[in-house]
Known about the structure:
- By secondary structure, this protein is α+β, with helices and mostly antiparallel strands.
- The chain has eight helices and six strands; from the N terminus they run H-E-E-E-H-E-H-H-H-H-H-E-E-H.
- The chain has a six-stranded mixed beta sheet.
- Helix 1 packs across helix 7 and helix 3 runs antiparallel to helix 4.
Amino acid sequence: MLAAVAALSGALIAASLVASRGESAPTMTAPASPARSSFAGLPQRGAALGDPNAKVTLVEYADLQCPYCARWSTQTLPVLMDEYVRTGQVRIVFRGLAFLGPDSERALRVTLAAGRQNRLWDVLEGLYYRQGAENSGWVTEAMLHEVAGHRAVDGSGAPWIDKALTKSAQAAQAAGVAGTPAFQVGRTGGPLELVQVDSLGPEGLRPALDSALAR
């Protein structure tokens, strides 16, 4: 398990696929957290968000310390949710990676634990809105309890989470993920294709989603 995670960490030499194409780094100041979860009314099951019978699945690979992941989650994801997820066309599956350091793994473990309560996406959003400088100690016990609750924090060391971390790392390697955020798109239940994203805006994924829906 540790070998798989270490191998992935070595392969992920850039924090973002988009950054490697020259897009400027986002600032660390996130917009104000919404009064309620952006995912209200949408079905969640573990790491999956949206109608399980949706025609297309979008898989997101992300590190909770990656500022580009936070930008995509807080600014672009709400737009895509309105266009594709709330309409029942697309479901999204989160694959968490922890290659940027200890704060990444600590945040990810609690996020995955919240998935057992079908609150993964709510906790993910809360952590992104509170994202601090890389490995600055921003992932504190108090903040995790505030965002996720004691059940998720207390369950973050469970053996099944170790297996989930390994599974995501292996999936990222198999998909050819070279940085975060990264995305795969395909028909639900069928093969997924890694999407080369040139923009963190909604236009970065719309062509791939529309193409998969048209098949």
